[in-house]
Structure formats: C-alpha cells, structure tokens
C-alpha cells in the first residue's frame, strides 16, 4: 500500500466514524506531549535521572488511604 492509498483509507475511516480532523495547533500540542513522554522515559532509563518506582508509591498511598479511611 502506498502513501496515497493509506491517506485515503485514513480519510474514509475518519468520515465513517465521525471523528473530525484536529487543527494544526492541537496536533502540534498532542505531538509535543507525546515526544515529551518519550524524552522523559529516555532520560530516566538512559540518562542521569533515576526511574521512580510508581507502583510502590501507589501501593503506599493506597495503604495510607485505607488506614485513615479516605
């Protein structure tokens, strides 16, 4: 499938399911957010930042909430 066919398939899907196209600013903001997520993962996994163990933090917070009845 070439790029032209792929674009037509995507356009047909968008028209069929009623999802609208977003404007350029929205697309740029969404792309920037996703690139930031990838950069955060790379910085923590391969750079100087350390990965935070979110599972342990969430378990600890849920335990505190159960203890205090929140």
Question: Could you please describe the fold and organization of this structure?
Answer:
This protein has 70 residues and is mostly helical.
List keywords for this structure.
about 70 residues, mainly alpha, 3 helices, about 75% helix, elongated
What's this model, at a glance?
The protein has 70 residues and is mainly alpha-helical.
Average per-residue pLDDT, rounded, comes to 84
How many E-type strands? 0
Order of helices and strands: HHH
Shape: elongated
- Radius of gyration (Å): 21 Å
Number of helices: 3
Number of domains: 1
Report helical residue fraction.
over 70%
Structural class: mainly alpha
Report the major sheet: none
Any low-confidence stretches, pLDDT <50, length ≥5? Answer: none
Distance between the termini: 54 Å
Fraction in beta strands: under 5%
């Amino acid at each position: 499938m070439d790029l032209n066919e792929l674009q037509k398939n995507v356009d047909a899907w968008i028209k069929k399911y009623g999802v609208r196209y977003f404007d350029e600013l929205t697309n740029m903001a969404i792309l920037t957010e996703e690139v930031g997520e990838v950069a955060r993962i790379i910085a923590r996994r391969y750079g100087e930042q350390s990965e935070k163990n979110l599972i342990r933090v969430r378990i600890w917070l849920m335990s505190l909430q159960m203890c205090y009845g929140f």
